[in-house]
Write a structure and sequence with these properties.
mainly alpha; globular
Length: about 60
């Protein structure tokens, strides 16, 4: 869910907004946002290419 929120946000999303949206602590939201952004910056991020389907748990 965090990946979806980050990549779908036009102007970016703060750790505080992630915290509210996901219902986690600020520390967790901050850690997630930094790790996801670092993964998106990687040159050889083969797993993030192409069509990626995300489903919401029921």
């Amino acid at each position: 869910m965090a990946v979806y929120l980050i990549v779908e946000s036009k102007k970016g999303i703060s750790a505080n907004q992630l915290r509210r949206s996901l219902g986690v602590t600020y520390k967790t939201a901050w850690y997630l946002s930094h790790r996801i952004r670092a993964a998106l910056r990687e040159v050889d991020a083969q797993l993030l290419k192409g069509v990626i389907e995300v489903t919401k748990p029921s």
